[in-house]
Amino acid sequence: MAGTGTGTGDDGGDCTIARHDFGPRCFAGEAFFVPSNDGDEDDGYLVCYVHDEGTGESRFVVLDARSPKLDVVAEVQLPGRVPYGFHGMFVTQAELLVQQQ
Question: N or C terminus of the chain: which is more exposed, having fewer CB within 10 Å?
Answer without folding.
Answer: C
